[in-house]
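Record type: ASSEMBLY
Status: queued
Input:
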Amino acid sequence: MTTNRQIHLISRPSGQASLENFALVSAPAPEVGEGEVLVRHHYLSLDPYMRGRMNDGKSYAQPQALGHTMIGGTVGEVLQSRNKAFAIGDKVVGMGGWQEYGLVTAATIGMLRKVDDSQVPLSAYLGAVGMPGVTAYYGLVHIIAPKAGDTVVVSAASGAVGSAFGALARARGCRVVGIAGGPDKCAYVVDELGFDACIDYKQHTDAASLSAALQAVCPQGIEGYFENVGGMVMNAVLPLMNAFGRVAVCGMIAGYNGTPIPMATPQLILMQRLRFQGFIVSEHPQVWPAALAELAGLVASGALRARETVAQGIDSAPQAFLGLLSGRNFGKQLVKLI
Amino acid sequence: MTTNRQIHLISRPSGQASLENFALVSAPAPEVGEGEVLVRHHYLSLDPYMRGRMNDGKSYAQPQALGHTMIGGTVGEVLQSRNKAFAIGDKVVGMGGWQEYGLVTAATIGMLRKVDDSQVPLSAYLGAVGMPGVTAYYGLVHIIAPKAGDTVVVSAASGAVGSAFGALARARGCRVVGIAGGPDKCAYVVDELGFDACIDYKQHTDAASLSAALQAVCPQGIEGYFENVGGMVMNAVLPLMNAFGRVAVCGMIAGYNGTPIPMATPQLILMQRLRFQGFIVSEHPQVWPAALAELAGLVASGALRARETVAQGIDSAPQAFLGLLSGRNFGKQLVKLI
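Status: finished
Output:
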């Protein structure tokens, strides 16, 4: 019988997440019932939102249950099928979780989607042509809604969302400025992703210093900001927002560890008539088809060359996830499972 | 020759505004040139936005020039006219400033508007049927956009904006909860303005305590919040906002004195997918006709009985303004000039 190795959440973090919150568990690969599909996962996606699920308490989603396999997006191929819509060998993307094999049941079959890996590599369906890409699209197109010539800024610019944001904004004629951590990431953002500029937040110890550096590369101010991190970076960007600016709030990773970082200057919301909009891309299914079509085109043409950091083996997932939370990944963080 | 007494701004506050920032100046009443109108002011409006104008620096409006008459809304009657659109005796509302007589020139004639004081008292055109009323309308109707049954909350509930907000929200079937300072104001908000509940923020020394009191009268959470004050009150309301809640940001009086109060929990913008929208009502002229029509109807029918605090004489304006900033007024703060 095939063994299915899984990562369970076994305790909730108090403060920073740690390896002790996770356990590697071996279970038999599941039996396939009528209407069900068994998927062998090729890649698991690691994403910041998972940190929020590890907490108990009020959030936009149910907390991850203790003693169960961590949730997460996966791509793979169909190994067994008792469902007419899927054949053995089909490449599929779904929410298979932190495990080597995923059983797709009646409850989750609606989230399984066949994909074509002839033009776009399979792993891209977890990044640029998946949830992170659509996240960038929704924030840029539906919240920031820029005109050509607008200056737009994104934090965590070298990541999966940030890189897609840059390509989508360049396609709309925007000046695109990134914020990332470290000279390598900043060089990649400018040289490979084609941003107009990128500021290394690690060179700055306070918001005022970071803000001054941003101002130098945003001489006309900022019309749109895509917020992936919160905290000091948000406090550095806000004073540069122009009147009627829009802030798409997608991530507040700086506050996930139980120590929320205040917004220093909320009065600017009034003074500059800013709009802040928090969003979760899964709540906007109507935008996915148009977003995925544009993103697949950008990847196929080479306009979007998103970098990946790939950990090997399911047992490496917890350590890779902690690295993601502290910014040690470079681009989309994946775990290769085959 | 008639004397025109005026209040000039003679210095900018560092920290709290004080009487020393103002001077009473006597000037001759101005001569009326071709196309111009001289208005004798009956009432001057005092409003929190004026505090922002006293500062130098980046804001949505030019700072008030030193050595000049303070800006402000006024109602009065036409005393002399060399403009065919206005006749002697016409009742008018405009931006005449802190003075007894105002010369309306070619540059400002577009802001002068004739009003009818047969159904609505003249002073109401500075409050419920004027800029404060339209401010409440824009925030409620165009930003919060509530459904019947939604819970909406407004800070500074006993003031000109808050009282209009309450009447407009009641007309739309909302549960309306106010926040005000002191038992008298709270009793007025419930008993005379018809709010469902009102919380006295002065009974609470921190946001957590105020939040618990609000939660008791908002058992289903809050769909819309009209922000007039910022600071501790904002930090008490945010944790109670329901998913997809809207916050209309109209005032941040708590931060005007040079000490901005941070937003304690910006991560809630993401977790609850909140929308914040700052606005200045003068930038939305298209909503004024519909808003004024509805507000005049609410006043004429008695559904909106807004209270006024009236200081007597132009020399009382600075003290009355400082009282407004510290919440000593009760309802719309006016200065009677005749």
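Annotation: The CA atoms of residues 6 and 99 of chain B lie 4 Å apart.
Annotation: Chain B has a mean pLDDT of 94.
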